[in-house]
Amino acid sequence: MIAPLRQAFHWLANQPYLLLSLTSLFWAGNIVLGRAVAGHIPPVTLSCVRWIGAMLLMLPVAWPHLRRDWRKLRAYWKLMVVLSATGFAINNVLSYWGLQYTQALNALLMQSSGPLFVALWSLLLFGVRLTWTQAIGIGLSLLGVLTIILRGDFAALAQVEFNRGDLMVAGALCAFGMYSALMPKRPATHPLSLIIVTTAGGALLLLPLAIWEFAAGVRPSADLVTITSLAYVVIFPSALAYLCFNRGVALIGPNRSAPFLHLMPVFGSVMAIVLLGEKPELFHLAGYAMVIGGVFIAARR
Hints:
This protein is an all-alpha fold. The chain has helices spanning 2-12, 16-36, 43-75, 77-98, 104-111, 114-126, 132-149, 164-182, 191-215, 224-252, 254-257, 263-276, 282-299. It is 78% helix and 0% strand. Helix 3 (43-75) packs parallel to helix 10 (224-252) and helix 7 (132-149) packs antiparallel against helix 13. The protein starts with a helix and ends with a helix.
């Protein structure tokens, strides 16, 4: 029984397209949930509990790898702090905070700019330029995302008004773009070792803010919604999604991985159709085709 499971995990760990698609699926659910619980669970508390829970969930399995890799990770402590701040602390707080103020249309529209931030940081930090194939793929998938978000009516784009929530979401994407660009520079360690250190770092950076938030009287409601929401964010968009994302970036690089972020609004639309009973339209099919085509083009060597 153990051997087949080990073979299955080994196969999955070497499927970057599937890993990155699962990442987008889990993160799409996180955006939907973040908007749903806005005002119910404070953003800093949600982010801090998310990373503490994810770290504790993975620690028993990761502990042997962490002991072996600790010296190497400690030698890269400056990079670990930056990865913890950009990928876990700043990114999460700004996302949850922004979802309290921005509309769903605006939030989804901002998500489509994620690959551009990755490309920008890759250029600024390491001089890595987009190839023409990657640029065309990002452009095509961006067009598909806009088709879905705007329901095929591009005239609606002129009516979008940006507020402080939009700026926070943009800041979150900028921070995560740096995280993605820096990931290939991480030390060669087991993925579980890296995720434990960075989730712990993110939680430690957020803990003083969470304590201040709680002392200020901004506290989560003690009910079933809070419990189930925290359980979801700890397991799926935290532990599983980041393991999938880190492995996917390690296999094909940040610029080829970034277009998969365009799948997030696609999965969000599917969730709305399945969970909310919305009727699929022609623009959904057109948008899906462009997004998937763009991801395929940009992810090619």
